[in-house]
Amino acid sequence: MALTLEQIRADVADVLGEDPADIPDDENLVDYGLDSVRIMALVERWRRDHGTEVTFVDLAEQPAIEKWAPLLGAAA
Amino acid sequence: MTVHDLAAARGTDTSAAGGTDTSAAGGDGAAAGEPAGAAAVAPAGPPALAAAGEPARPGPDRGLPLTAAQSGMWFAQALDPDSPAQNTAELVEIHGPVDPELFVRALHRVAGEADALRVRLVETPDGPRQLPLALGPARAAPAPGPARDTGPTTTTEPARNPARDTVPSGAVSSSAVSSGDAPAATVPFPFHLADLRDRTDPDAAARARTGDDLSRPFDLAAGPLFAHALFRVGDERWLWYQRVHHAVMDGYGYSLLARRTAEVYTALAAGEEPGPSPFGRLGDLVAEDTAYRASETYEKDRAHWTEQFADRPEVPNLAGRTALPSRTFLRRTARLAPEATERVRELASSLRATWPDVLIAAQALYVSRATNSREVVLGLPMMGRMGSAALRIPGMVMNVLPLRLTVAPGDTFAQLTRQVVLGIRAARRHQRFRYEDIRRELGLLGEGRSLVGPLVNVMPFDYGLTFAGARSDAHNLSAGPVDDLTVNIYDRADGSGLRIDYDGNPALYEEPELAAHQRRFLRLLTAVAEGDPHAPTGSLALPTPVERDLVLTEFNDTAQPVPPTTLIGPIEAQAARTPDAPALVFRGRTLSYAGLNARANRLARELTARGVRPGTLAAVALPRSVDLIVTLLAVLKAGGAYLPLDPDYPAGRLAYMLEDAAPVCVVTDAATRAALPATGRPVLEPGDPELAARLAAHPATDPGRALTPQHPAYVIYTSGSTGRPKGVVVPHSAIDNRLRWMQAEYRLAPGDRVLQKTPSGFDVSVWEFFWAFRQGATLVVAEPGGHKDPAHLARLIREQAVTTVHFVPSMLQVFLAEPAAADCDGLRRVFCSGEALPRETAEEFHRVLPGVPLHNLYGPTEAAVDVTHHPCVPGERGPVPIGKPVWNTRLYVLDAALQPCPPGIPGELYLAGVQLADGYLGRPALTAGRFVADPFGPPGSRMYRTGDLARRRDDGAVEYLGRTDHQVKLRGQRIEPGEIEAALAACEGVAAACVLVREDQPGNQRLTGYVTPAAGTPGGTPDPDALRAELAGQLPDHMVPQDLLVLADFPLSPNGKLDRGALPAPDRSSAGRGRAPRTPQEETLARLFAEVLGVPYVGVDDGFFDLGGNSLLAARLVARVRDALGAELAVGALFRAPSPAALADRLHVAGDNREALGVLLPLRPVRPGSRTPLFVFHPAGGISWCYSGLLAHLGADQPVYGLQARNLAVPEDMPGTMEEMADDYLAQLRKVQPHGPYRLLGWSVGGVVAHTVAVRLQEAGERVDLLALLDAYPSDQWRDLPIPAEADALGALLRMAGFEPRGDTDREQVLNFLHEEGSALANLPEHTLNSVVDIVVNNARLMRTHRHRVFDGDLVFFTAAAPRAESWLDRRGWAPYVTGRLLNRDLDCLHPQLTQPERIAEVAGVLAPRLAAEPAAEPVGGPADIPEENAR
């Protein structure tokens, strides 16, 4: 099942312990508490649940949902 | 052999050939033009030599600057170039076959791709820069050396088609770093191969090699800054070791390198071309760093951190101290079991956190509890690459960020974890700001202070890499320098749980200590993971069950059955056993047990009649005396508890205590009574004849009383933090236990003599007063005030054969500095308590009094004097422990959650057991706050919270570490600054006050007060001297601040609290040369001030405390003043009259010139009981002040009178003959001493006068005991000399002041000189100065006309033996005028110098034994120290 922007946001909010509504698409997620362990968790989760092949570095390089969406094949 | 050696040695192999594929990195590098095998032709030697062939200066290519991250590491290395601490290293264990040839090619290729790795760092005028290195060929050559080192795989890389190689012979250069203008230095590729399979323990052999290699520092300027080795430790098992300097690589960088190496090797093994390099360039790192430092973000980040840490918090660490990083570190590796690891993950997820968050929170909890701190700052290494190109660059980027947490025992672990999550989130937003820069911004660098405590380094990147299908796992060997403690945590994907390494700085931690911390942390972590995260963390305990049992039970195994007796019962029993034994010695008089008991019994019956009975209080306000001790015993015998009131306390304090305690009666003396308020309660004065008559009527037998061990024995007041002192009520059972333990431990015997010198208001006095009486020993009672005078104590201890004595450590220090202390070798036991005993003092004690046991005791008033004890052992190291508990006493060192601390962990000391006080008199709330339920003892038991920080040693002995609050101990006295602050704030004109103890000069602790002026006070700012004087009327002397500073405002910390650290130190530079003294007393006082303070000069208006005096020095000064001037003076008087002039006024001793210039000058007047006076006769100038230097050396009970010329004070006729003058003086001295034996001394002309007076006295039938002449010569030797002129008279003035006349003929010059020298003679009134000239001339005339008659006796003579102009002067000229011997002592000085301090001391030293002797029936014979000369 392909990832959607909403799903990405929901998963990010989950690992950050925040409400998805509070996670903007265009902000640096580091400011919201995203760290390497949480990115790794996302990489694992998306690989497992959605078969994506993004790496840690791919996500960590541009930590914002709008940058991730194309990498994760998610429709905007 | 090391990697270095091998790498260099390999360069000798000129057969090297071949190269790597160039597609990745070689390109048109700088080394392209180099001949093949550039490295191969380099001479053998270390890499530094190999690199030495390059041009000394870098060419136009100056490389790149260092990033801030690199600079930090570079600088650390530059501080200690030979240190290997910056080495990082990793070992990758490969399970499967490895082709070493392919492996080295892979390494070589990856190194070529990683330009950040391939640099050397050189210092240039523009700062350190990184220059590219070209690498020699990759070769899996065997290591030369012992054959066993040589593995079977001695492969040489086969040459490829050279034509394809654009980088000949495989040299790799960096086009990224080098612009290509200059050839990069080429160094051999650092690779070592060894087959260790034939070793007994191949892994151990590999460890030995890597350990050895890790201890080698890199040469930053030479490079390379990395090294590889491959060890074959099994047929299918290989170890890949790599070491990299931390300035070029961090942990994340390692993971990039390892992953790429596995990728390249796997490709090569498959015969495939590896994919393109994934790495970014070093230049990008540098550019990013430069951009950041110029950015707005940088400024924001800086603001964030400086604001976060503006208060520069004290950072706790587990060692309790800091040290510079060592060159090595200790490492303990442990694993958290897989199940526990799983639970940690579950807990994290239930708290919406990550497992590293939980680990960090658990570490914060541990540090908080183990350091007894609510505030914890952990250091978090961050990879620092999020959102950055650095994600793809193997280099040095990581940063350490401080995480500040508050850990309260009442908070839950969930709350703590949330704090961690939010804290890290906030930190992450400012993560690029360097750790070193935060320290610099806060000014911590210069002070060498830490920003963080332990580091928690979580490395979540497990690289379970495969090398051509062979599985591998990585082990970190070194993560870089360890300042304090670094906890490295690795997640293992293989399900083996977390690996938790404790790296400790060996300067701070011992191996077992580190292991204990690690063990306890893992236990705590497990408990956290298994427990309820929503329960307060206070329920979690640090110690392991074994440790808990040790600290609670084993160390407290002090149960000892004691009979239910009281403090007084055993004393009465002893008195009955040994009625005739000496019980008490005071001022040379001895009282037997029977005598003492009888007196106490009679007074006890009188007290009973006045209402004293069990459960009541009787106040005792007496100075140290027999009466004091009789009264204390009597109160106890009547069943009452005694309330000691120190007569030295100010009236206000005494009044407060009387009112607060409401005793049924007061026993005092006439002097103290005046200071006591009228309470309406019965007052008994032991000296009162009416009382004496009533006492005589009472039976002398022991009185009956319904006293139980539970009744109070005494009430002693201690300082109270709220401004009110509080009375501690101690029951008989408590003090009885204390004394029974003391006897069992130290075995006092009937022959022992205990010195009583502690004031009764200080609880140490309790055992001093009563221990001896319970054991049949003798109590030797010191003079009131004598406890502060080391010379008096030494004399008393020696003369009275004292065996047992107590010192507060600071007084012990003073005592040991007293030369006579070494003679006190009759001591059998010396006790210290009252404040921390410095190890140096204990060692000094052992040096001065070898063989005398020294015991360190500890206890608050609230626990019957002492509850711990420790025998000091010479040569022991570290702080002197307060030791182990006494009988029936339990000690608990508890953390903030009231959980027991394991050994080595500091906490607050709590006391439990039979010695606890009942509580504070009439203060139930205060009592309930300090005496709390003992959760570890039997039901209903209490424990006392001391407020002292302590730590158990592994052997159970307790070490005292300080206070948990502001309470201070100054010279053994417990002081609550709050009480003094309250008193200061109550003074007029003071808005607020703060009091603390400063130690601006080591060893000189000074109570220092700060006040701010109240707004709108008439008269402006308060005057410190006036404030001190006001306090002296309310507080005991030791509580009056020696320094008082008036500040406009108090310095505040950013959070608005008083910043005690920023309070200024008192300025001592103002002491100057003030007004000179006006009288000999002022001169004497100024000299004593200077001596005691250890300064060359004190003006008469200079303040004692302003010049650095403290209360201990004050006590010494008071003792010296007493000796010199015979004036009794309380230390408190110094607060009210702190200058020599003010003190002289206060003493009213010969205070004005009229008296000072009278014919009879009482230098130290006769007092009751003093010895035969010494009369001293003026020299030519007529003034006898010059003899004041004798006073201090002759003893306080030696009166001294000066005879001075007529016409000094008021115009008078001067004598016409020497006989007339002698007659006049004789009449004066008979007023003081009507009859002989007389003792006379004269200097110069005074000697002739003394001889004349002596002859006349003998002619009048009086005895003359002593005739001493200071360099005085008979008239015969002067007769033919001319009479001096005025100039000579001025010379006489100088001589009287102790100076050789100089060229000054001018009166003003002479007076200026005297002023500068601090002589009182500079301030003579005009008339006197004129008359001195006349007197000198007159005396010269009388000398020349006098005819000596014969003195019947010996002549004690002092010769100024330095060569002099008047060579004709000859003491043998006295022979015709003396019947006895001429006993001479030569002094190495000139005539005028005889009265200078050192000389006069020598003179006094000779005279003292003669003066001390009671007037003998026979004339005083010549002691052996004066050579006898034949007078005839």
UniProtKB/TrEMBL annotation, chain A:
Gene3D superfamilies: ACP-like. InterPro entries: ACP-like_sf, PKS_PP-bd, PP-bd_ACP. It comes from the Bacteria. Keywords: Phosphopantetheine, Phosphoprotein. SMART domains: PKS_PP. Residues 1-76 form the Carrier domain. Pfam families: PP-binding. The keyword Phosphoprotein applies. SUPFAM superfamilies: ACP-like. PROSITE patterns: CARRIER. The keyword Phosphoprotein applies. This is Isochorismatase. It comes from Streptomyces lycii.
